[in-house]
Amino acid sequence: MFILDTLLIGFFTFLFARSINLSKFSSFTSGATMMFGGPMLSQILPGHLINFDTFIWFPLILLFYELSIKKQKIFFAIIASIPISLSFLSGASQIAIFSLIAASIYYMFRLVLNIYPTKKISYLFKMTIAFLASVVIGLLLASIQILPSSEFSKLSARANGLSYEFASDFSLHPKQLVSFIFPYFFGNPMEGTYWGKGNFWELNGYLGLLPLLLTFIAIFNRKNKHVIIFTIIGLFALFFSFGKYSIIFPSFYEYFPFFDTFRVPARFLYVYAFSISILAGLGLESLIRILHKPNVIFLNTIKAIFLFGLIFLFVILFLNFKELDVSFYEKLILNNSYAVGLNHKLLYEYLIKDLLFTSSLLTCFSIIILLKVKNRINLNFLKIIIASIIILDLWIFNSKLISTKTIAEVYDTPQFIKKINKDKEIFRVFDKEGYYLPMLERKKIENVTGIHSLYIKDYQRFLLSIGAHKNKPYESFFEIKEINFPIFLNLLNTKYVLSNTEIMNDSLKKISKHSNVHINYLQKVEKKLFVYQNKNLLPRAYIVPNAIVLSKNNVLDKLKSKNFDPKNEVILQKNPNMRLNNSSFYKEVKISYRDPNRVQLSTILENPGFLVLSEVFYPGWKAYDNNKETEIYKANYILRSIYLDKGTHRITFIYSPDSYKTGAIISISAVFLICIYLLRNKDSLVDFKSLFS
């Protein structure tokens, strides 16, 4: 998928560059810069695939907006709704909204510059309506994703917005712009030497030195309206990425909807990367034009670059900087307060290598330009050299961030997981530190915390009630230090507990101890591991005779109390208008079938009682008792329960949310209408085909 995304964003960037009349070679340069630029390929390291999946559609949105304005056809604005919908369907709503904002800025400036100085108000009105229609249709097409996501967001841990401190986390500090030129100035995360703020992959804006030079050439020779537009978009994206260090993000956080639910402002660097990629292509066009008739200022600039690069090469190679005392680097750069505990000599070597590479590249670039000026090389050879330098630069940079392993090494399963996997009962595992979640997931072993996704707020509160924990209300992982109330694990059908420290609790029986267990295949990190079996777990489904009704605020305290017996009663938050006390008894109910959207079970009761299902209560679930729908009650704070009379019961829980069905109807209707529109206007596609010629 990463390979496919890389190819697609390069190809889509190429198409957009062609649509603004860049040559094939300049368009190729823009596409290559975008494909291999740091903001894109560094997503491979943490495995942030959906960010990449979502942003690949951004060039296509701009492509159709450009064609709409250039050809003065609403048709292409309507077509833009398709990549808009695909960006929202890809999963990363934050990236989709960032893309839409950047596309709106592009459309606005492109439209204004297109009508100037004729000032055709009717045309402006017509194209503005076309833009709004594209956004609305795009959202309608993606309704099948948007409506269920909106339903979830209202119940999530971030439902009421994030604190400013958390939302502005991973803001790009202006000081880290130095890494846009010297990529390993702040160390290498693959070697555990990164000392910058945040993390490497979210704040990585390295696009190669030559694309930056070409960008400056484009800006200083702004004979193209797209130079102005992408300079504005690029600066906006960069300053937004500064987060709390600029005024743009705080304004959006305060006054715009949704922005108080997003974190990592630096993700706007994707838009910055695209802007620089296009400006690099525009700069290359300007460079080729200048080389036909170079002026004195240009020649002097190239000579200055050559001299600058040569001096740096001399200083680094002949003065043997590598052998200088590292203490000079510590005082000047680290200020004796940064990168504490890291290998400063290694960091110093990174800097020297970056300086050596940069000075070599500047020297080579200036030499080939001077050779072209003197007609010692032809234009085609110059183009090959420029493309080779850009790709080689980015290849060298990215190769240090990608570690390949054998399939056997990556998917090697520890013995303790193999043993748990042999247990064919229905149960869950609680991984206390969260180190083994991917291993459990690969073996389809259900676990209490899932695999680091966003949590329902009530479920988060439920889990944090297990014991002492760090107070991180918005995070997508748990740091529970102690198990003080195992009742919460019991209710979640938790049979095994994994911990890197010993647990002192009578309800847990230690069944094995392991030394030097690998927790991360990227790095050789090993931990001790203790495996415990829960002696008091409750089954996935069971009958209790009684129920009590409490307000939501009192349920967790009741669960923690010693007089609560989960085998005798269930806590409901709504009165079922049924008998709360019955003469039935505790009884396990066997599940005959289950998948993520359906659970089937059956039982025979001699007296009425309450069925408790250890699955999360969530809108959209429906329960059927002997084919007759019955109400699901929120039980024990986050689980499901239904009331059963005496007799034989065949029970089915089905996930059939109205949000999904409504979204599907809207999306299918929108697809049908846009297909009709495309068929009726298929002749307009001729303009699009011209991009490939």
Features:
globular, 693 residues, alpha+beta, 27 helices, single chain, five-stranded antiparallel beta sheet
Characterise this structure.
The protein starts with a helix and ends with a helix. Strand 9 and strand 10 form a beta hairpin. The chain contains 27 helices and 16 strands. Helix content is 49%, strand content 13%. The longest helix is centred in the middle third of the chain and has 30 residues, at 344-373. Helix 2 (24-36) runs antiparallel to helix 15 and helix 8 (93-115) runs antiparallel to helix 13 (225-241). It folds into 3 domains: 2-47 and 156-399, no CATH class; 408-534, no CATH class; 541-656, no CATH class. The mean pLDDT is 89. The strands form 4 sheets. A 5-stranded antiparallel beta sheet has the order 8-5-11-15-14, with no helix packed on it. A 5-stranded antiparallel beta sheet has the order 9-10-16-12-13, with no helix packed on it. A 4-stranded mixed beta sheet has the order 1-2-4-3. It has 693 residues and is α+β, with helices and mostly antiparallel strands.
